[in-house]
Design brief:
The protein has 362 residues and is mainly β. It has two domains: 3-266, Jelly Rolls, CATH 2.60.120.200; 274-361, Immunoglobulins (Immunoglobulin-like, Sandwich). Helix content is 3%, strand content 43%. The protein has helices at residues 10-15, 60-63; strands at residues 3-4, 21-22, 39-42, 57-58, 75-77, 83-88, 101-106, 123-133, 140-148, 153-162, 167-175, 184-193, 199-206, 214-219, 225-228, 238-246, 256-267, 274-275, 284-285, 290-293, 296-297, 303-309, 316-318, 323-326, 338-346, 351-358, 360-361.
Length: 362
């Protein structure tokens, strides 16, 4: 296996991750702003609301949609529309870990945890988030994973806060083999990230023909840390995880980690499926009819479009054919781009997600 990282400056990273205006609706559960049809959530409380029993897992049918699951303070929509996850030190824990979590788990098949993806295709997880609180004990929270089904996590993405300097780092751990333990490597992929500061990460597992699979992890569009995967991974299957997963535990109900997600999207493209439209869409004007068309190439049997994270500006609608139409509302006027993520799905179920932006003027 081969590993590597060529670091870019923290300044460049910060310039690549500007805060845009996101159309996330505060008065809806997370499933009203994010496509959670292929996710479950494990929260750090049991069925009675206590912390001594088995933690609750909510599956896609009850999690997704504008009437989906919400359980403040563990999983809910914040006033800014963020999908917010809180894990206290004393939270209920699973049989596989003593560390509490409020964490999403990808489910390719919403009815079965056993259906996952392998390293012979392409799988991508994109996220935009803020870390609002970390445990006093170690300042650490895991915010993204590629987990093996029955094996160790291939990838961890975690935030490590330094209380002395009052800033943190985004670090990835790349696991050498499916057996937990050495060899593994830790790489800092972003530095000088304060609590409450927005950043992005991307995890990508892909393979070029008969070459070994590669796991790549980046933050703020920087150069990724990479792992050329050992052949022992070839028989494993995987799923993504994202949320607030502690690296410690304790007795406190007020100490823990609070994480806010503003974008979250997976892609599982095949047959060259790719969205070709530029990310910056034509500007719009309030109260003036608007229309633009999204395009893609590849895939099989045509494509159907849907929202993954957020919404177009108020008054606009993404249609199943990829057109965005409507009349922007005056409330959508902003000098900042309005960001949202869409997905195209082909007839075989392959998917590709991409962020788009529209600026609405007066």
């Amino acid at each position: 296996m081969r590993i590597g990282l060529i670091a870019k400056s923290a300044l460049l990273g910060s310039l690549l991750c500007t805060d845009a205006y996101a159309e996330l609706r505060p008065n809806t559960p997370p499933g009203g702003n994010f496509a959670l049809e292929n996710w479950s959530i494990t929260v750090p409380v049991d069925s009675t609301g206590g912390v001594t029993g088995k933690p609750l897992t909510i599956y896609p049918a009850k999690l997704s949609g504008p009437n989906g699951y919400s359980n403040r303070p563990y999983f809910y929509t914040e006033a800014d529309g963020a999908m917010t996850m809180w894990a206290p030190l004393n939270g209920a824990t699973t049989g596989g870990s003593a560390h509490p979590r409020s964490e999403l788990r990808e489910m390719i098949d919403p009815s079965s945890n056993a259906v996952n993806w392998d390293s012979f295709g392409t799988a991508i997880l994109d996220a935009q988030l803020k870390i609002m609180q970390v445990p006093q004990k170690d300042g650490t929270v895991i915010v993204g994973q590629v987990h093996g089904y029955g094996s160790a996590p291939l990838v961890l993405v975690y935030y490590k806060y330094d209380f002395a300097t009052q800033t943190g780092k985004v670090i990835t751990k790349l696991q050498g083999t499916p057996v937990q333990g050495p060899p593994y490597w830790h790489y800092t992929i972003l530095s000088d990230v304060k609590l409450g500061q927005t950043f992005t990460y991307q995890i990508k597992v892909s393979r070029n023909g008969s070459d070994p699979a590669v796991a790549a992890v980046s933050a703020n569009n920087g150069t990724p840390a990479t792992l050329v995967m050992d052949p022992s991974w070839d028989n494993e299957t995987f799923y993504f995880k994202a949320g607030s997963y502690l690296h410690t535990y304790g007795d406190s109900s007020t100490d823990g980690a609070l994480v806010k997600f503003y974008r979250l999207a997976t892609s599982h493209p095949a047959d060259g499926l790719y969205i070709t439209t530029n990310a910056a869409l034509p500007n719009a004007k309030a109260n003036v009819l608007y229309s633009t068309q999204l395009s893609f190439r590849g895939g099989m049997g045509g494509g159907t479009w849907s929202l993954v994270s957020g919404h177009p500006p108020a008054g606009l609608t993404l249609n199943r054919d990829g057109s965005i139409t409507g009349t922007p509302a005056a409330s959508a006027v902003s000098s900042q781009p309005n960001d949202f993520m869409v997905r195209v799905t082909d007839a075989n179920g392959s998917t590709y997600s991409k962020k788009f932006s529209i600026v609405v003027g007066s």
